[in-house]
From TrEMBL:
Transmembrane segments: none annotated. It comes from the Bacteria. It holds the Pfam family Glyco_hydro_20b. This is beta-N-acetylhexosaminidase. Residues 162-328, 334-477 form the Glycoside hydrolase family 20 catalytic domain. Its EC number is 3.2.1.52. It is an enzyme of class 3 (hydrolase). It comes from Dactylosporangium maewongense.
């Protein structure tokens, strides 16, 4: 079966000296069957064929062409006039196995052609990411490279295990610019991540302009951990992020964290405080000290207007309401508050996501709970799941990209433990949390909290190489799960990160070529 296919692919002779192993793809495909001795070279005569009549297919073809022209210098014309497989690279919306769903694809590499077939454009996009990993590392370079550009022959049939494969970026503790977020989106796309969860507000900063409450961004966004200048996204900036993500078939989930983690909002508007007094802005890293004023009716007008503006800017189905660490809110107030906020989000046509703490309130089955605990059982969450709630798995001791790799890691925290590659990879999201089996799990997400992170290099150092481990847990069938094989494939990504300029932790648990 799958394992045999992967093993035979591993031992197949390389089609050319510079060709990559057919089985080196991360996340591991469902099936990968090499055709020994066969390869297809991308050359000056290669044309990229996009499914006729599909603007998204043409856009994906143009993205691929633009990327490869930089490193190969080849013309790689894109045409939309040929329906069938032809010499070159064909991106087709016909002939894919129905079972691969909306994001799956079939990739065939023969001596004469490379063909990706999918049911939906999203599947073409994912298949193109696989094709990129089958090209020599130099294809990922930002400068002209000599080639040649062989792609090893064979067939991959592939689709995701889970619908939700996310990464969270905390832009509140330290602000990151649109360009920095876009760079991260490029990296997420390589590993078939399909959700970017943006943590847009916290005690230390409010990061998105709200027209009806302008001080949130202009004052509440004006600092960050350590007291730097902070920053915020204009609504046009946010839309630019959403669109850039959409071009990579990534859905943005905006989070406004409440009722706790709200000092930046409370500092911006005195009238939101129970005592009518605005606190000072906060630049430390403590949690749990702030709360919106639950008995105050203005609180819900505020939330309605904030969620309304954000929902209108967000094409995806979800709005994340946080709900974590509300230790300055009584249990009764917390339940009342979460109940009202769920109704507000629903009124704006969106589905609620909350950190699993929201299971302490009453959840309709549609509310998604994001598990961030460090244990494998949680009674309120299990009760919500029994009532139909789905779970996104972000166990902090496995998926938290802000945890240190080891004691002397310069960045990060260690409250949930040290996390190196073995720990990040060795758990089964569909069989981890008591009462939340495979069918209750919507997917996985790797949060990156930014108390200690300031630069793009900092983001990358914490995300790589652990993010691809979480991405594989989200995409690949459990039958392919194998730590030794994964670490070989992961190691092979290192040279790609080198040519792409991605800063990564050279974990001693991995052999880097
Ligand atoms: C806990 S995880 C938090 C965040 C911190 C993070 C640091 C969660 C829902 N809340 O406020 O940034 O730990 O690791």
């Amino acid at each position: 079966g799958v394992v045999a296919a992967l093993l035979s692919a591993t031992t197949a002779p390389a089609a050319a000296a510079t060709a990559v192993a057919f089985s080196s793809v991360v996340p591991a495909p469902v099936t990968a069957t090499a055709t020994p001795g066969v390869s297809h070279g991308i050359t000056a005569s290669t044309t990229i064929y996009a499914a006729p009549g599909s603007a998204p297919a043409a856009a994906i073809a143009n993205q691929l062409a633009a990327r490869l022209r930089v490193s190969t210098g080849l013309p790689l014309p894109v045409v939309t006039t040929v329906a069938g497989p032809a010499d070159g690279i064909a991106l087709l919306l016909t002939g894919a196995p129905p079972g691969v769903g909306a994001e799956g694809y079939q990739l065939d590499v023969t001596a004469s052609a490379i063909t990706i077939r999918a049911n939906q454009p999203a599947g073409l996009f994912r298949g193109v990411q696989t094709l990129r990993q089958l090209l020599p590392v130099a294809a990922d370079a930002a400068t002209l490279q000599p080639g040649p550009w062989p792609v090893p022959g064979g067939q991959i049939v592939d689709h995701p295990r889970f619908a939700h494969r996310g990464a969270m970026l905390d832009v509140a503790r330290h602000f990151f610019t649109v360009a920095q977020v876009q760079r991260y989106l490029d990296q997420l796309a390589l590993y078939k991540i399909n959700v970017l969860h943006l943590h847009l507000s916290d005690d230390q900063g409010w990061r998105i302009a709200i027209n009806s409450w302008p001080n949130l961004a202009t004052y509440g966004g004006g600092t960050q951990v350590g007291g730097g200048p902070g920053g915020y996204y204009t609504q046009a900036d946010y839309t630019a992020i959403v669109n850039y993500a959409a071009d990579r078939y990534i859905t943005v989930i905006p989070e406004i964290d409440m009722p706790g983690h709200t000092n930046a909002a409370l500092a911006s508007y005195a009238q939101l405080n129970c005592n009518g007094v605005a606190p000072a802005r906060y630049t430390g890293t403590q949690v749990g000290f702030s709360s919106l004023c639950v008995p105050l009716e203005l609180t819900y007008t505020f939330i309605d207007q904030v969620i309304g503006e954000i929902a209108a800017l967000t094409p995806g189905p979800y709005v994340h309401i946080g709900g974590d660490e509300a230790s300055s809110t009584t249990a009764a107030d917390y339940s009342y508050f979460i109940n009202r906020v769920q109704q507000i989000v629903a009124a704006h046509g969106k589905t609620v996501v909350g950190w699993h703490d929201v299971a302490n309130a009453t959840l309709p089955p549609s509310t998604v709970a994001q598990f961030w605990g460090t244990t494998t059982s949680n009674a309120p969450l299990a009760a919500a799941v029994a009532n139909g709630t789905k779970v996104v798995m972000s166990p902090a001791n496995k998926t938290y990209l802000d945890m240190k790799y080891r004691n002397n890691t310069r960045l990060g925290q260690k409250w949930a433990g040290l996390i190196d590659v073995n720990t990040a990879y060795e758990w089964n999201p569909g069989a981890y949390l008591t009462g939340a089996g495979e069918t209750a799990v919507l997917g996985v997400e790797a949060p990156l909290w930014s108390e200690t992170l300031v630069t793009t290099a900092d983001i990358e150092y914490m995300a790589f190489p652990r993010l691809p481990a979480i991405a594989e847990l989200g995409w690949s069938p459990w039958s392919t799960h194998n730590l030794t094989a994964f670490k070989q494939r992961l190691g092979a990504q290192g040279p790609r990160w080198n040519v792409m300029g991605i800063n990564y932790y050279h974990s001693t648990q991995v052999t880097w070529p």
